[in-house]
Automatic annotation (TrEMBL), chain A:
GO terms for biological process: thiamine transport. GO terms for cellular component: outer membrane-bounded periplasmic space. One of its GO terms (molecular function) is thiamine pyrophosphate binding. NCBIfam families: phnS2. Keywords: Signal. InterPro entries: ABC_2-AEP-bd, Ferric-bd. The keyword Phosphoprotein does not apply. The lineage of its organism: Bacteria, Pseudomonadati, Pseudomonadota, Alphaproteobacteria, Rhodobacterales. This is Iron(III) transport system substrate-binding protein. It comes from Paracoccus halophilus. Residues 1-22 form the signal peptide.
Automatic annotation (TrEMBL), chain B:
Pfam families: BPD_transp_1. Its main location: membrane. The chain crosses the membrane at residues 29-50, 182-205, 217-240, 260-282, 303-328, 358-378, 408-436, 466-485, 497-520, 532-554, 596-614, 634-655. This is Iron(III) transport system permease protein. InterPro entries: AminoethylPonate_ABC_perm-1, MetI-like, MetI-like_sf. It is found in: Cell membrane. It comes from the Bacteria. It comes from Paracoccus halophilus. PANTHER family: POLYGALACTURONAN_RHAMNOGALACTURONAN TRANSPORT SYSTEM PERMEASE PROTEIN YTEP, PROTEIN LPLB. The keyword Membrane applies. Residues 182-379, 460-655 form the ABC transmembrane type-1 domain. It is a multi-pass membrane protein. Keywords: Membrane, Transmembrane, Transmembrane helix, Transport.
Amino acid sequence: MNPMRICLAALIAAGIAPAAQAQQTTLTVYTAFEAEDLQRYKEAFEAENPDISIEWVRDSTGIITAKLLAEKDNPVADAIWGLAASSLLLMKSEGMLEPYAPKGVEALDARFVDTSQPPAWIGLDAWIAALCVNTIELEKTGAPVPASWEDLTRPEYEGMVAMPNPASSGTGFLDVSAWLQMFGEEKGWDYMDRLHKNIAFYTHSGSKPCKDAARGEVPIGVSFAFRGAKSISEGAPLAVVMPSEGSGWDMEAAAIVAGTDFPEEAQRLMDWTVSENAMKQYNVGYAVVATPGIAQPVENYPEGALDAMIENDFEWAANNREQILKEWSARYDSKSEAQ
Amino acid sequence: MAVLAQHDLQITRRRVQPKPARDEVWQRGLIVVIIAYLFFGLVMPLAMVFTKSLQTYAFYPEQVTIAFQMPDGSHAEPRSLQDWLDDSGAEANDGLRASERTRIQIVRIIPKNARADVESFRVTDLSADGGQLLIDGVPSEAGQSYDVPRAQLGKVQVRPQVSYGLGNYGYYFSQPSLFNSILNSFIIAMIVVVIVVPLAFGYAYGIMRTRMRGKAFFRLAATVPVLVPSLLPAIGLIYLFGNQGILTPLLMGQSIYGPIGIVMASVFFTFPHAMIIMIVALSTSDQRLYEASEVLGASKWRTFWVVTIPGARYGLISAAFVVFTLVLTDFGVPKVVGGDFNMLALDIYKQVIGQQNFQVGAVVSMVLLVPAVVAFAVDRIVSRRQVAIMSAKAVPFQPEHNPRLDSAMLILCSVVAVFILGILAMCQFAALARFWPYNLTPGLSHYDFSKVDGGGWGAYFNSLKLAVLVSTIGAAIVFLGANMVEKARGFQIGRTILQFLSMMPMAIPGMVLGLAYIFFFNDPANPLHFLYGTMAILVINTSIHLWTVSHLTASTALKQMDKEFEAVAMSLKQPFWRMLSRVSAPVCLPAISEIWLYYFVNAMTTVSAVVFLYSPQTQLASIAVLNMDDAGDIAPAAAMGMMIFYTNALVRILYSLATGRLMGRLQAWRHR
């Protein structure tokens, strides 16, 4: 009778409908995994744990980190699966992680496991910075394929390089932190000053420079090796170059968010994330996984990527993250695309 | 006996009481409910934006002391952190501005060598309100001391405290990059106005004042942009003019990423709004004025300037302001093709999503409100005057046959139509190409949205659900509200408040409303917090964001109905809802269905308000376009954008068919 009453009923129905589903536990999992991997990981996990379903919240590393920190007092996430170790170190220092030693953690390479007992987070796989070079577009300009980070600052590459913004992208941050560690603080910033002259734009996402290079939108994208290998397999005219000075890298890691309503399910998720089956899933896209002896070669993955990995001080990177980002934004934000 | 008499008296009293009184209570109740809806969905959230913009955070290192434990177990004289800072000559937080989330570690303030042999520390929060410190994540209490072993000192952090003032505004206007955005936004908006308004005038002139061919087609073609999110033309431009675009040489070395791209895409999405206003403005003209001008010996050119332009002046002003506001408040276009060119609406997004700096985001929102409110006010004043120029004696204008003018206008309209349809065609082509620009064989691989960000096909169906809910609920509430404002008896104050609140949303940019909703609904202390992250909040937000235009449509239709209807209904002792459902609603059905369509189409395309509000369960197609583009997956973004276009186009066609038939029946009374 009363139209208003009908409207209210519809409003309430709209809000309640999604909740009235099967008797399953839904874990809200925050991630910065590549979008195309999400479905595969979810299916593999749920096949073995049919009573748990995963609800992904995905964004780039910086955004997910900021989101987790923002929700600190009222966390939405139950677990984190696939976020840079340097970010998880930050959460750990904020007391946001629930330490847990997953079943089978002892099989992992010790470098991948948090040093606390029980560990607050577990590393799963590693990704390594690399250059995605569009050979067709570069040939048109007549410039040679760059072989080192230093090469990128040469005048012939002016306006030809895209790089992820370290404030929002984990890949961007590991580049910057690697340069500061490799070249030293002063020379590192000097290097970035010179590189900045050649940058066409800083992107929000770490894989975008490589995708842009694949489409020929820019000739050179600073990205990571796995993304380049993927694009080549999709038919992009790319060469993946490991810069001769060495490459920054980071781990994708997993952890339980303190205060989750589903501690048991979150632990089962953690158990699964270090299982052999999970490692095989990571290996589809990543050449380096946490359990030794599992990794199979990835199609079109650049040779020498493992040797290029620098000695990365994650503690240093996590502790200095905020300072580095502030300095970076003050110097270079002018060429950033919208975050 | 006495009891019985009293009882009788009561019955009589009830009989005597006129029926409408109870009816009025119902009406008042309804008005209050709708006011409450707008109050909690609009006024309160906006007030929160204002409050947030006044919040500043600062460190008070003098409020925290630390005492070293001596080897004998006693404590040395406590020193404040400010003393330690003074020793080293450093400033708290390196002199940088603190935000809500900034923390300083105590170990960074006290040099390592000064505390080398100390085993334990006693830190004290001297402040009156406490919370200066976070000890392993737990806030400290006022006046409380905490003993911290050496190994744990790294976990003690100093937290900034909130205060209220104009500090954020000072900061905002002192930042060259943020201040530049204001300038950029105004310049771009001006350029777009200068291009779009004359172009739309010419286009509408061709349709209304000439006898060129294909008028119906041109009219339809020009309204196509309202069916797609503003992100889509920007994506189309990348394919046309990007570094690998098919028309890139036309730019002669200029980059599409930046002002050029923003202007072109803005022209695309603002054109239909300007054109519709110009069509209305040019439709109200008096043939007699043209005849007089001719008789007085004025040339065609002079007639154009002294008759046509003055007749359309209010439309021109209105169009200029509408376009200006649209460009200023849109963030989709600069997001996609802006490159490093910053605009105001984009700054809100960057501050909030990128840097979690809600306070500065709130300041930018307040800045953005100013031009939007001014433009809205001008538009309202102008549209009130527009009504007055048609007199009852006016003779409708009949265009003469003029081959030169007709073909000139045909060319102009064709160029615009090709521009509009060309961009869409480009998007569709790119969405089908396997690997742009190296492999152009068509395929459907980009329609597999599960491999990219944005929520896959689920996002598309969420959008459909949102559109149906918003259009149905929105049309019902808005019509009810407009009916109360126009037709209710008495309760003048309630009706005036409702009328005022109904006009407000037009002046509020979508981004500001979205941000306001985060502030208001994501506060755990708010009893309405449960709405956060649900479809319901998206429905509420979108229904209110688009309220004003819908309200005006409903009001206009209701105003055309004679007040006599109400008088008759009242004298027949009919409750208001029967009058509403049997008379007003059927008579106003054309307006109601127009509102329904308006809500549907805009709910499918809206980005700005909902970008802050969607959750993993409620991802939307328009947001998916944004997120896919963001991740570099621009072909799937184009594919999803085109899905929105086809959906809206289909709904619009179905709408025309359905209303054509339905109106025939329900509106039969209009014909004898």
